[in-house]
Amino acid sequence: MAHAEVQQHDAHGQRHAHVEGQQHPIGIYLKIWGLLFILSGMSYAVDYFHFQGYLRWFLIIVFMLLKAGLIVAVFMHMMWERLALMYAILVPTLLLLVLLGIGALEADYTFFTRGVFFVKGLL
Amino acid sequence: MTQAMPASAVKPLPLPEGVEGIVADWSSDQRAFKNVPWGKAMMWIFLLSDTFIFSSFLISYMTVRMSATEPWPNPSEVFALTLFGKSIPLILIAIMTFVLISSSGTMAMAVKFGYEKNRKMTFILLLITAALGATFVGMQAFEWTKLILDEGIRPWGNPLGAAQFGSVFFMITGFHGTHVSIGVIFLIIVAIKVIRGDLDHQRPGFMTGRKGNYEMVEIMGLYWHFVDLVWVFIFAVFYLW
User: Which of residues 91-120 of A touch B (CB under 8 A)?
Assistant: First the structure.
């Protein structure tokens, strides 16, 4: 019991150090909030003004990744965390690119076979 | 810390057995994530697993959409609303996006005021966040109602084109909406804890013996920002594709 309390006390002491580390001026949150609004507005504009083709894809993905990056880095405080935590969370996420690639290959093949067997005149 | 100690002082403590032993072993002092309370590290790991769930959904959606031979219903038109006698494409989704981003902004500020131990501001900001979240769910319910009743979209088919549209739509937005709803409930719980002073006085919480502290607000914030993060991806790949 005494052991547990010593540990909690230690953790508490570290927490205070941590609290000071994760306090940021309110201005940065407001600026990021504003940026997210602008980026969302721009994504919406991509649809509103009917951009098509590769330009549409490029803009949608750029705005999506910028928004995601800002949320994770600032709102979720990731940019102020230690590298160990950052890598533990962000590197496994990159594995999803493999799944994305497999999904795209599989979809192409399914589309091809559907064209051959189900739809006359698709190919 | 490595000073020589009398042998009697370093005698290891007896290890607990049974279920208590499992918990003690896994929570012993081997810390990988420094400067981060364990609750926050665990929330990050939960969010990582949730990332994989949502990514599986979105990648399956991509696979299903790319392989569909019938034309995919145009989201820009499906989600248009007629306002002031004018049909505006995708406007409902745009408003939902702004509502959710605003709730993320108020949540970030609630975390800041929490660490400053400003109970009133934290409480107010948490409630605003919850209200915006509830607004989002309300608008989603409206969207679902419109799609089901007016446009006849069902999980197994719809009159607009590819049958897969319905199943993917209800699955992904339904799962996300569930996350938002759970978030709203927990935001209200945390807000009540804050205003009662439970976190200042380190009162143990509901269903746990652990002492309350303001890290809870930040951990709640992580979950809430994640919900917003998922929406960023759904908005881009489902509604704008």
Answer: 92-93, 96, 99-100, 103-104, 106-108, 110-111, 114-115, 118-119
